[in-house]
Amino acid sequence: MTTQVLSNHLRTTGLLLIAVPLIFTAGFTGLQLTFEYPDVLRHPAGEVLTRFAAAGVDLHLYWYAMMAAALAMIPAAIGLGLFLWDRDRHLAALSIGAGVLAGLVQALGLLRWVILVPGLAAGYVAPDATQAQQQMAVALFDAANRYLGMGVGEHFGYLFTAAWTLLVAVLIIRRHRFIAAAGVAIALGVIAGMAEPFGMPLAGAINSISYTLWALWTLILGIVMVRGERQMLAVPQAA
After folding, report:
1. pTM for this structure?
2. CA–CA distance, 61 with 38 (Å, rounded to integer)
3. Does some domain include residue 137?
4. Which residues contact 40 (CB under 8 A, 6 or more apart)?
5. Cis-peptide into 127, omega within 30 deg
6. Is the distance from CB of 65 to CB of 30 less than 8 angstroms?
7. 167-217 tens-digit pLDDT
């Protein structure tokens, strides 16, 4: 790989790693301010659908932003894995797979908010909606929320995000131990969220804090790559 190609690869991958947490945080913050997300999900489904229908276009854009961030994770993971390929091909390949799956399952989970929920919300608040139609909308919302949200987006999302973070940490540990050690701790905190459905105390809080730190960790990793500090991440090239 020539110096120019390597430099472009570093910059592109770094920008993607920077974009993922920034876009996700922007979308998440917007949802918190306009929709009281994620606390709103603890309210009855009928109330959530009513508030969604009344929220307007901004709410849709925030969900699209979060989904775009999840999709951006896919090329970012591929680029970083290829860059670290010569360090350990097996671990790098696994990191690519985990990163791609992390982005994919989270995007699939978020997709319900931009495709399914708008229709359910509109049908629920329609002036001529019958009680049976409203009950059907609530049942579909609850089913989608449990399967696509808690199951695909969160459960698998936590698993593959933690796996990607852990694999990347192992791959860079010889060049930057502090970032790697932080990545290991963050990965353990993220995967703790998988225990929340089973009633583990503080699992949700640990996961939430860890995701905030994960966003910062990914941002730092991207900045390192954009700055081109190859000695911190890359394997020394043979002469």
Report:
1. 0.89
2. 16
3. yes
4. 47, 48, 51
5. no
6. yes
7. 999 999 988 899 999 999 999 999 998 988 787 888 888 998 999 999 999
d(C-alpha 180, C-alpha 104), whole Å: 24
- Cβ within 8 Å of residue 33, ≥6 positions away: none
Instruction: Find out whether the peptide bond into 118 is cis, omega within 30 degrees of 0.
Output: no
The structure tokens listed for 123 are: 């049908």
Is there a domain that residue 167 lies in? yes
pLDDT in tens, 139-160: 999 999 999 988 999 999 999 9
Cα-Cα end-to-end distance for the chain: 12
Q: Which among 102, 95, 96 is positioned nearest to 71, based on CA atoms?
A: 102
> What are the residues whose beta carbons fall under 8 Å from the beta carbon of 223, sequence distance 6 or more?
14, 18
Give a yes or no: residue 228 inside a domain: yes
Nearest to 162 by CA among 202, 102, 205: 102
**How many domains are contained in the chain?**
1
Query: Of how many residues is the chain composed?
Result: 239
What are the structure tokens assigned to 81, written together? 């894995």
The residue among 84, 82, 86, 79 whose CA lies nearest residue 172 is 84
Distance (Å, whole) CA 83 – CA 225? 10
Alpha-carbon gap, residue 200 to 71, rounded angstroms: 30
Contact between residue 37 and residue 58 where contact means Cβ atoms under 8 Å apart: no
**Which of 14, 2, 57, 7 lies closest to 35 in space, CA to CA?**
57
Q: Which domain does 44 fall in, by range?
A: 3-232
